[in-house]
Amino acid sequence: MKISVIGTGYVGLVTGTCFAEKGNDVLCADIDVKRIEKLNNGIAPFYEPGLEELIKKNFQKKRLTFTANIEEAVQTSDVLMIAVGTPSDEDGSTDLRYVMSVAESIGRFMTADKVVVVKSTVPVGTCEAVRAEVMRVLAERGVSYDVQIVSNPEFLREGAALEDCLYPERVIAGVQSEEARQLIISLYRPFVDDESRILVMDVYSSEMTKYAANAMLATRISFMNELSRVCELSGANIDLVKKGMGMDRRIGPHFLNAGVGYGGSCFPKDVKALIKTASNLGSPMSILQAVEDVNLQQHDHFFKKVQNYFKGELEGKTIAIWGLAFKPGTDDLREAPALRLIEKFLYYGARIRAADPIALEGARKLLSFESRVQLLDSFYEALQGADVLVIATEWPEFKGADFAQVKSMLKSPVIFDGRNIFDPVDMARQGFDYISIGKDPAFQRVVQTGSHVEISNQWLN
Ligand SMILES: NC(=O)c1ccc[n+]([C@@H]2O[C@H](COP(=O)([O-])OP(=O)(O)OC[C@H]3O[C@@H](n4cnc5c(N)ncnc54)[C@H](O)[C@@H]3O)[C@@H](O)[C@H]2O)c1
């Protein structure tokens, strides 16, 4: 099939590349000329494991091409996929200006019937608004073509985007005609082993499914984060509680990690958007307001652990930060908890020495004007002269850290782990003050005296 994907961000570029990989003829378009230049030179504009290689492969086979000419993108293909950003507006609602601008371009440039597939995450009713905008422009031009609209939200995870796109757990599509249903099935059949994984429904339900899924995942995280604070006060250990909960098949083990709070380009804005949709419809989702509040409190809660360690005096202290990206496997810094923490540390007068395996380039753009922030290529270098270490992203690289070196470089052996990646017993044995999430602060002292906590911790390993 001939497909044009409009918007070459994480979703558009990955989707376009994967459709090309499956043998389609894909033209990816973006208004960002520099981005298109990079892509035409075989350079991925962001980090996603395996993506650059797959782009090059399909580019060489001429199944994947790039353009900054939206007119060309609209006219070349019968299937047009919209994958532009849908950030939060100031009031939390979804800013649809990019989506609607693409709709306007489609109406302006189309010279034949089109199927418009909306992959961007958009509130209920947006696909209809997109179709109405295309029809409005067509009417203005005095021409008439058929426009089929399909809602096809994307569920890929940054860091595992190729796997998610090439082997989706499910494909959700909202259609308004049998013809569109058939098209979606033929588009996605090569991606699934079983056609029942392609769930076709009405457009409204499809649009809502995306928000519902992200809101549920965010809810699980906030639930665990709030529970972790109760664990800290009650003497329970959130990691053990998590394991006990996750073994219940009705609950399952995923998305139960307590931590420093969620971030990224999706959860914060999608939770806000659903809150807004619900309240606009007169049925407020108080549970989601709580999810968002708990998330913000959790960033603060973790920050206060560090602040309290220094008895409120962060002025002149140097904090080493390991991990800047909002999660491992990506260089995406949007709403990254690390950045929120850095902002707070700076506000209270601290200095920062931070390292991340791949997000440094993006971080330099955001933080280069801050004289008290040093961004370093080596994790160990970041520790040089630092008072304490804060872990903000659970990069697998950190797990194999050389703790003797960590200890020798820090002014004092103190680690604040916002992602619970180390075993507190081990850390205590290695002589660290290890402060993580959801454990009684007295935990390590108890561990060192060989009490029941050590025994219970063995179950964890
Ligand atoms: N990033 C994710 O992990 C993820 C996962 C699932 C769904 N989504 C959703 O997919 C959508 C895209 O997200 P993203 O992270 O890929 O966005 P992004 O910000 O990485 O990329 C958006 C791209 O669209 C381009 N663009 C903007 N206006 C345009 C126009 N008029 N014509 C052509 N190109 C235009 C921008 O230049 C940019 O390159 C959002 O709705 C998001 O919520 C994202």
Automatic annotation (TrEMBL):
It catalyses: UDP-alpha-D-glucose + 2 NAD(+) + H2O = UDP-alpha-D-glucuronate + 2 NADH + 3 H(+). Transmembrane segments: none annotated. One of its GO terms (biological process) is polysaccharide biosynthetic process. GO terms for molecular function: NAD binding; UDP-glucose 6-dehydrogenase activity. The active site is at residue 266. Residues 320-424 form the UDP-glucose/GDP-mannose dehydrogenase C-terminal domain. Catalyzes the conversion of UDP-glucose into UDP-glucuronate, one of the precursors of teichuronic acid. Belongs to the UDP-glucose/GDP-mannose dehydrogenase family. This is UDP-glucose 6-dehydrogenase. It comes from Bdellovibrio bacteriovorus str. Tiberius.
